Amino acid sequence: MSWGKRLALIALVAFLAAMGGVYAGRELFQQTRQSETEIHALLHKQLSLDDAQEVKIDAIERRLATRRQALELEMRAANAHLAAAIEAEHGYGPEVTAAIDHTHQVMGDMQKVTLEHLFAMRAVLKPDQAAVFDRTVVKALTPDVAAPEAQ
Predict the structure, then answer these.
(1) Where are the alpha helices (DSSP H) in the chain?
(2) Which candidate, 119, 6, 18, 28, places its Cα nearest to that of 77?
(3) Is position 147 within any domain?
(4) Residue 144 and residue 116: Cα distance in Å, rounded?
(5) 122 lies in which domain range?
(6) Contact call for residues 62 and 79 (beta carbons, < 8 A)
(7) How many distinct structural domains can be found in the chain?
(8) What values do phi and psi take at 90, rounded to 5?
(9) Is the dihedral of CA 138, 143, 63, 72 positive or negative?
(10) pLDDT in tens, 124-149
(11) 68-79: b or e for each residue (b if 16 or more CB lie within 10 Å)?
């Protein structure tokens, strides 16, 4: 294979890997945001939060926004690392494996941060509000699962 064809193949593989990483990241983060949007709408429109609750939840949301931004930057870096590893190894080697593990670690961190955020918001709620919140969270996390029948 000529040098030019090899270079084109490397560029194609790197591009496809980067696109795959971007797609996976967008799917993960978009699904999280859609669920959070539903939960935030519930919090602000349906639970009749008092002023003190609103202040506490706004502070919790600001902290999440800062942490999420950092994790999204880390995800971009992880995707770039994966693309570079694929370009360097041209196969499923140790560097690609490490890059995939890093990507999964960042995705896991995002999920943990999101759940910590949800529990922090829940802690601000009164018991009746928390019950509605819990049902909404479960529904947002299981949109394709039929609700169990009451016994």
Answers:
(1) 3-41, 51-89, 94-124, 127-141
(2) 18
(3) no
(4) 24
(5) 3-141
(6) no
(7) 1
(8) 55, 30
(9) positive
(10) 999 998 998 888 888 877 766 655 55
(11) beebeebbeebb
CB 106 within 8 A of CB 24: no
CA angle 33, 35, 38 (to 5 degrees): 105
Query: Of the given ranges (29-33, 45-49, 53-57, 141-145), which has the lowest mean pLDDT?
Result: 29-33
Side chain identity at 118, as an amino acid letter?
L
Give the CATH number for residue 86. 1.20.120.1490
pLDDT in tens, 52-81: 998 998 898 888 888 888 988 999 999 899
pLDDT of 19 over the 90 cut: no
d(CA 70, CA 50): 31
Tell me the residue length of the chain: 151
Residue 29: inside a domain, yes or no? yes
